[in-house]
C-alpha cells in the first residue's frame, strides 16, 4: 500500500516534532541544572550529535523511498535537511558563545583555521548553509542542472562530519565509530551513482 499525501503530511508533523522536541529537552535540562558539571560541553556534544543524527536520517530517505516503493516519502527529505542545518547552527553557536565567549569572534576565526577538526566542521557547516538556502523549489528551478550537482555535496558532509566527530573525541569510544559506520553504509548504498562519476 502506498502512503497517501495526508499520511505524508502527518509524517512530516511527527518528524518536525522529533527534530524540535530535543531542543525543548536541552533547554529544560540546562535551565534546571540537569546537565553535568560542564554544561557547555554537554550542549556542544548534544547539538553536534543531533546534527549528525538528522544528517544520517536525511541520507536514509532516498534509499528508503526506492526500496519501500513509497515515492511520496521523498517529500520528508527537505525538512530533515533543514533541521540538520538548524542543529549544526546551534552546535556552532554553542561552541562560539559558551566555549569562546561572545567577544571572541576573532578567536573563533583563528580556531576554525588552526584546528583541523574544527576546519572540517566549518566546511560541513558552509555546505549545509549552501544546501539550505537553495533547498526551495524556486531555487531548484533557477539553478536547473547545477542544483543536483550542488546538492550532491551532501556526500562530502557525510564523509567529513563523522571524521570531525572521531577527531574531536579525546578517548577512543565506540559511539563515533558507529555513526561513521552508518554514514559509510548510507554512502555504500549509492555506489552505482559514485561509479558513474568516476572519471577513469
Ligand atoms: C560549524 C562548525 C563546527 C564547529 C565549530 C564544531 C565544533 C565542535 C567542537 C568544539 C566539538 C568538540 C567538543 C569537545 O568535546 O571538546 C565538536 C564535536 C562534535 N561535532 Fe562539531 N563542530 C562544527 C560542525 C559540526 C557539524 C556540521 C556536525 C554534524 C553534522 C558536527 C558534529 C559533531 C559531533 C557529533 C561531535 C561530537 C559530540 C560528542 O562528543 O558527543 N559538528 N564539534
Overview of this protein structure:
α1 (5-31) packs antiparallel against α2, α2 (39-67) packs antiparallel against α3 and α4 (105-114) packs across α5. The longest helix has 29 residues, at 39-67. The protein has ten helices and no strands. It has 200 residues and is mainly α. The chain has one domain (5-197). The chain has helices spanning 5-31, 39-67, 77-100, 105-114, 116-133, 137-143, 145-151, 154-168, 174-188, 191-197. Bound molecules: protoporphyrin IX containing FE.
Q: Quick recap of the structure?
A:
By secondary structure, the chain is mainly α. 80% of the residues lie in helices and 0% in strands.
Mean pLDDT: 96
Helicity, as a percent range? over 70%
User: How many β-strand runs?
Assistant: 0
How many distinct helices? 10
Q: Decide which structural class fits the backbone.
A: mainly alpha
Shape: globular
The overall number of domains is: 1
Question: Secondary-structure map with pairings?
Answer:
Layout: H1 5-31, H2 39-67, H3 77-100, H4 105-114, H5 116-133, H6 137-143, H7 145-151, H8 154-168, H9 174-188, H10 191-197
Helix pairs in contact: 1-2, 2-3, 2-8, 2-9, 3-5, 4-5, 5-8, 6-7, 8-9
The structure holds protoporphyrin IX containing FE (HEM).
Amino acid at each position: 500500500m502506498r502512503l497517501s499525501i495526508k499520511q505524508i503530511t502527518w509524517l512530516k508533523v511527527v518528524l518536525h516534532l522529533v527534530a524540535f522536541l530535543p531542543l525543548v529537552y536541552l533547554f529544560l535540562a540546562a535551565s534546571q541544572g540537569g546537565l553535568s558539571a560542564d554544561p557547555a560541553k554537554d550542549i556542544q556534544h548534544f547539538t553536534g550529535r543531533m546534527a549528525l543524527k538528522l544528517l544520517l536520517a536525511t541520507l536514509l530517505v532516498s534509499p528508503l523511498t526506492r526500496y519501500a516503493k513509497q515515492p511520496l516519502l521523498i517529500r520528508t527529505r527537505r525538512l530533515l535537511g533543514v533541521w540538520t542545518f538548524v542543529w549544526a547552527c546551534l552546535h556552532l553557536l554553542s561552541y562560539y558563545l559558551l566555549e569562546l565567549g561572545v567577544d571572541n569572534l576573532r578567536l573563533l576565526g583563528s580556531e576554525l583555521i588552526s584546528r583541523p577538526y574544527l576546519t572540517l566542521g566549518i566546511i560541513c557547516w558552509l555546505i549545509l548553509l549552501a544546501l539550505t538556502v537553495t533547498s526551495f523549489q524556486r531555487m531548484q528551478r533557477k539553478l536547473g542542472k547545477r542544483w543536483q550537482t550542488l546538492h550532491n555535496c551532501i556526500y562530502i558532509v557525510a564523509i567529513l562530519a563523522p571524521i570531525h566527530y572521531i577527531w574531536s573525541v579525546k578517548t577512543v569510544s565506540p559511539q563515533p565509530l558507529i555513526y561513521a559506520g552508518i554514514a559509510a553504509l548510507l554512502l555504500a548504498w549509492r555506489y552505482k551513482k559514485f561509479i558513474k562519476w568516476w572519471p577513469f
